[in-house]
Amino acid sequence: MRERLHPPSSTFAARLRDERGIALILALVVMGAFSITIASVAMFMASNEQDATRSRDIARALNSAEAGLNNALAVLTQQDSTGTQPIGSTLASTTFTIDGGSGAYSATKTSALEWTISATGTSPNGRVTRKLELKLDGTQSTTSTQQSPVYGYGFFVNATSGCTTIAGNAPVQVSVFVRNDLCLSGNASITQPGVTSNTLTVYVGGKYTATSNPFVGAPSQKIQSFTAVGGCQRQSSNVICSTQGQSKVYANSYSSTPSAVTKPTANAAAVYASGNWRNPVCAVGSFTFDNDTTLNASLGSVDLLQSNGRPSFDCTVYSPSGTTTIGRLAWDVTTKVITISGTILLDGGLTFSGQSFAQYTGFGSIYANGAVTTSGQAAICGPPSVPLSSSCLGNWDPAQGALSIVALNGWSMSGQSEFDVIAYVNGAFSATGGAVVTGPAIADTATLSGNGKFATVTTVPPGTPGAASSVTNTTWNVLPGSWRQLLTS
Amino acid sequence: MSRARRIRDDETGIGLVELIVAMGILAIAISAQLAVFSSSYTSLSRANMKGTAVTVADKQMETYRTLPYACIYLTSASGDSTYSGDAAYSGSQVTGSSCSPSATPATSATTASQTVSGPDNRSYRVDTYIASTTPSGGRALKNVTVVVRDLTNGVVGTVLAREASTFDQAQA
C-alpha cells in the first residue's frame, strides 16, 4: 500500500501530485489535437476540391458564353449582310446548348455599322454563369463595274457559227458586231446616219460576204473602222477588204485582229432569287409576276398590255426579306403610260398582241423567262416620243428614260411595230416586215429582213446584263478591344 | 487490513495499464489520421490534376482563338476507341492540310489526340474535336471541343476537364 507523503491539510496539492489517470488525460488531449488536425486537413481538402471543380465550371461557362458570341456573329453577318438594317434593330434572345452547357445570346444595332452582342453561358451543373459582351464592326467597300462594251454596238450577234444575214432594204445605221460570218445581200447596207462620217465600227469575227449590191459605208461618208478576221468575199470572189472598189467597204481603217468583246451573261436565277415575285405589293390593281416559287416559266406567255385593255396596276417587288425594293412596274390604262424602275422579272414570256401602244417612263429592265413576241401593231415609245399608231412620234432620248427587255428564250417581231428599248436576247433575234427596235439589239443569232433601225445607248438602265454597277460590300469583324466580361445578376 | 482492501489500494502496475490504454487510443487516433492524410493526399492530388487539366484545356482552346478561321482544322480526324468514343466525336470532322492566308497552324492545334506534359510534370492526354455547325439563320461555324484525360503511368484515365466553344469567321 502507498503511503500518503503529505498531510491531509493540503488536499489540492496532494491531488495535483497524485499522477493517477494522467496518461489518459494526456492521451485525450493528444487525440483532441489530432482530431483538430484531421478536421483541418479534411476542410482544406474539401476546399481544394471545390476550388478545382469551380475552376472547371467557370471555364466551361466562359466557353459557353464565347460560343454564344460566335453564334450571334454567325447569325448577324447573315441577317445584316448588307449593313442596311436600321439602328435599333435587335436580334432576339436565342438559347443554345453546347457540350452539356447552355447559354443565350442577343444583340442590338447601336450604330449604322455596329452591333453590340451579349451572351451568357452556364456550366453543365448550372452552378456558374458568365456573361460576355462584344461589338461587331462593319466596314464597307464599293466595287464598281463598267458597262459592257457590247452596248457600244447597236447590233451585236454572238453566234459562233453560221452567217448572220442582213437582207432588208433599209440601211443599218449603227455599229455592228458579228462574232462569226456576216452576210449582206440584196440592197442591204451599213451606213453612217445622216451626214455623219467616221463614227461607226463594223466587226466581223469570220468572213464578210456580200451578194448582189450591198455596201458598207460610202465613198463620201466612210465608217470609222472595218474588221473582218476571215477576210472579205463579194459576188462569190475573195476580195481585199481595204480595196474599196472591189469590196465596196468604205472605211477609214481596216483590220483583221480578233476582238475580245464578249456578250454579258443574263443571270436570271440571281434576279429571281433577289425578289419576292410571288407576292408583289400593289398600290393599284394587281399583277402576277410569278404564280409559284420556282423559276419555271409557269406563267406561259404574259400579254403585258392586252391590246391596251389591261386594267391599271402599280406593283412593287421587294427582296425576300422585305427590306429592299427590287423593281416597280405600273400601267395606267387611261394615260397609256408604263412606269418602270429597277428590275422586274416575269416567270414567262412576253407578248404584245393586237394593238398595244404605250409610252414608258423611268429606267429599268424587264426579264421575260421565255420568248418576246409581237405580231400585230405595237409601239412601246421611250420618252419623249409618244405612240402614233404603230410607230413613235418623235425620237426617243435614252437620257430621259430607258427600258431594257431581257428575253431569255428568243425575240420575234413581225407586223408593224416600234420598240424604243434595249433588246437583250438569249437565243435568236428576228425582226421582219416593218418591226424595228430602235435601241441596241444584243443576241446570240439574228435575222434581219425588215427595216433595221438600231441605235447605241450611252448608259443602259440598271438590271440590264452588262450594265454598269456599283456594289457595296459590307464586311463584319469583331471590334478589337470590345470584348468584356460583365457582372452576372 | 483485509486482503481485498489491500488489493484495492495496491496501485502497483496501474501506470503500465494506463500506458497501454493510452497507447491504444493513440494508435487508433494515429491510424485514423494516417488514413485521412492518405485520402487527403489522393484528393488534393486529384484536385491539383483537375486544375492543371483545366489550364491545359484553356491553353489548347486559346490556341484556336489566335488562328484565322480557315486554319481551324485537324489533319486527321481518326483516333483510338477512347477518342472516337467521346460524345463530341462525329464522323464528319473538319479536316485540312493547309490554310490561307499563309498561316500555318501549330501541330498541337491540328492534332486530334496528343500527350502533353503539364506544369506539374504529369502527363495528360488532350483530345480535340472540330465539327461544323450552323445556327438557325446563320452561317457555318466551327465547334471545337477539347477533352483532357488523365494519363498517369501511360494509362488513359478519366476525363479531368472538357471545354467547348464555337468559332465564327468574324472572330479571326
Task: Walk me through what this model shows.
The complex is a heterodimer of chains A (489) and B (172). With 489 residues, chain A is of the alpha/beta class. Chain A is built from 4 helices and 37 strands. In chain A, the strands form 5 sheets. Chain A has a 16-stranded mixed sheet that branches. Chain A has an 11-stranded mixed sheet with strand order 15-14-11-8-6-35-32-29-24-22-18, with no helix packed on it. Chain A starts with 10 loop residues before the first helix and ends with a strand. Chain B is of the alpha+beta class and 172 residues long. Chain B has one domain (14-171). Chain B is rod-shaped, with a radius of gyration of 30 Å. The N and C termini of chain B lie far apart (102 Å). The mean pLDDT of chain B is 87. The interface between A and B is large, with 53 and 55 residues.
3D shape of chain A: elongated
Helical amount among residues of chain A, as a percent range?
Answer: 10-25%
Structural class of chain B: alpha+beta
Strand order of the largest sheet of chain B: 1-2-3-4
Q: Approximately how much beta-strand content do the residues of chain A carry?
A: 35-45%
Short structural summary:
Chain A is of the alpha/beta class and 489 residues long. Chain A has three domains: 51-145 and 474-486; 151-255; 266-467, no CATH class.
Q: What labels describe this entry?
A:
heterodimer; A: 489 residues; alpha/beta; 3 domains; 16-stranded mixed β-sheet; eleven-stranded mixed β-sheet; elongated; B: 172 residues; 20% strand; rod-shaped
Topology (SSEs and partners):
The complex is a heterodimer of chains A (489) and B (172).
Chain A: H1 11-17, H2 22-79, E1 90-98, E2 101-111, E3 114-122, E4 129-145, E5 155-157, E6 163-166, E7 176-178, E8 181-186, E9 189-190, E10 201-204, E11 208-212, E12 215-216, E13 223-228, E14 232-234, E15 237-239, H3 244-247, E16 251-255, H4 268-274, E17 281-284, E18 301-303, E19 313-318, E20 325-332, E21 337-346, E22 349-352, E23 355-368, E24 372-374, E25 377-381, E26 386-388, E27 391-393, E28 402-407, E29 411-413, E30 416-419, E31 422-425, E32 428-431, E33 434-437, E34 441-443, E35 445-448, E36 469-478, E37 484-486
Parallel strand pairs in A: 5-7, 5-34, 6-8, 6-35, 7-10, 8-11, 9-12, 10-13, 11-14, 13-16, 18-22, 21-23, 22-24, 23-25, 23-28, 24-29, 25-30, 28-31, 29-32, 30-33, 31-34, 32-35
Antiparallel strand pairs in A: 1-2, 2-3, 3-4, 4-36, 4-37, 14-15, 17-19, 19-20, 20-21, 26-27
Chain B: H1 3-9, H2 14-65, H3 81-84, H4 107-110, E1 113-117, E2 123-133, E3 141-150, E4 159-167
Antiparallel strand pairs in B: 1-2, 2-3, 3-4
